[in-house]
Amino acid sequence: MKPITWLGALLVLSGILGLAIPVFTTAQTKDIVSLGGLKIQSTEQSTHVVPQALSVGALALGVVLIGAGLYQRH
């Protein structure tokens, strides 16, 4: 399989994933105070949104790259 086809498949997969799960949350734990053996930590959550246009664009570009990889002659 050609590298352009692999790249297309990766883009198609990421486009489908972006359409299936458009919003995801990440958490980051930070040390606020550290005094001897005592630690006070804070967990900060961040919500991330994947734009639908970006997902559709990645999906379409992936399909085009797969088609180009299959269409190219050796």
Low-confidence stretches: none
Number of helices: 2
Largest sheet entry: 2 strands, antiparallel
Mean pLDDT: 92
Principal-axes shape call: elongated
Order of helices and strands: HEEH
Work out the strand percent. 25-35%
What this model shows, in words?
The protein has helices at residues 3-20, 52-71; strands at 23-35, 38-49. The protein is of the alpha+beta class and 74 residues long. A two-stranded antiparallel ribbon has the order 1-2. Helix 1 runs antiparallel to helix 2 (52-71).
List the helices and strands and how they pair.
Layout: H1 3-20, E1 23-35, E2 38-49, H2 52-71
Antiparallel strand pairs: 1-2
Characteristics:
2 strands; single chain; 74 residues; 2 helices; alpha+beta
Brief rundown of the structure:
This protein is 51% helix and 34% strand.
